[in-house]
Design brief:
Layout (H helix, E strand, L loop, with lengths): L6 E8 L2 H12 L2 E4 L8 E5 L2 E8 L10 E7 L3 H10 L3 E9 L3 E7 L5 E7 L22 E7 L3 H12 L2 E7 L5 E7 L2 E7 L8 E7 L3 H10 L3 E8 L5 E6 L5 E6 L3
Parallel strand pairs: 1-4, 5-8, 9-12, 13-16
Antiparallel strand pairs: 1-5, 2-3, 3-4, 6-7, 7-8, 9-13, 10-11, 11-12, 14-15, 15-16
Helix pairs in contact: 1-4
């Protein structure tokens, strides 16, 4: 089934939900509302009619991490995938557990320590629209667009995710002293890249969100208290990227045309 292995949800852990809600609303154009979960301040970000991301307090994340974005990938069977993660040298940090009205999820770390999520949606179609409403859509602004793994062992990382999620290697680019940037595909479409640690102190995932113009997005990021660490830089295919940090310290990136 095509949905297995597809990116399907993006989740922010932050120390200030109100500030994060205001920041991403201005930067990415999201409308953020309370999810209505009793006893749990979980907020949902929408882009038009589509749900694209969730926001939650850091205190409710496993292990008291710094502010972060977590990327979820769809699986056919959450419990089986969780067992496969452990058998392959990864670690399940939370779950598997049910989310009423959404599906079954778990949060895990790959063998190199990069944290990610898996989700078995209740409702699903070939594009993993399901109950998340199409959070990943490379044709739309404000949606997830690209997924970058910085790893202490990117070759081992690719082998792990290829076995778990069915990804395939695509083009590879020589970055000189930075090593190789290995693109990976799902269902014939490039959805991300893997590389060495670079400037990252630990193995981690970085989500890219689509924007109508990278230069304008950079201005909104800085005008609203964020920091741009890299970009705008042109990437193969003619798009421009910028890597940034929100005011609470969570890293993310934007991609789109330059102007």
């Amino acid at each position: 089934m095509k949905f297995h292995g597809s990116p399907c949800w993006y989740e922010l852990g932050t120390g200030d939900l109100d500030a994060a809600q205001a920041f991403y609303g201005k930067v990415l154009g999201w409308t953020v509302v309370d999810s209505g979960m009793e006893g749990f301040d979980y907020r949902l970000a929408r882009m038009g009619d589509a749900m694209v991301a969730g926001m939650m307090p850091l205190l409710d994340q496993q292990g008291a991490p710094p502010p972060n974005w977590n990327i979820y990938f769809a699986v056919e069977d959450c419990d089986k995938a969780a067992a496969d993660i452990g058998a392959a040298g990864g670690k399940v940090l939370l779950g598997p557990d049910d989310i009423p009205g959404t599906g079954r999820f778990a949060v895990a770390a790959d063998p190199q320590g990069a944290v990610f999520g898996i989700l078995q949606p209740l409702a699903m179609d070939e594009d993993c629209q399901g109950s998340q409403g199409g959070a990943f859509d490379q044709s739309k602004t404000g949606h997830g667009n690209w997924h970058e793994l910085m790893s202490s062992d990117p070759e081992a990382g690719f082998a792990f995710y290829a076995k778990l999620l069915g990804w395939q290697k695509s083009d590879a680019m020589d970055m000189g002293e930075m090593g190789t940037y290995q693109l990976f595909s799902h269902d014939g479409k490039d959805i991300g890249g893997m590389m060495g640690l670079g400037n990252s102190p630990v193995s981690c995932w970085l989500p890219y969100f689509g924007t109508e113009g990278t230069e304008a997005a950079i201005a909104r990021i800085t005008d609203n208290g964020g920091k741009v660490h890299h970009g705008p830089v042109e990437v193969p295919g003619g798009a421009f990227i910028a890597i940034a940090e929100d005011p609470q310290g969570a890293w993310f990136a934007v991609v789109g045309p330059k102007g």
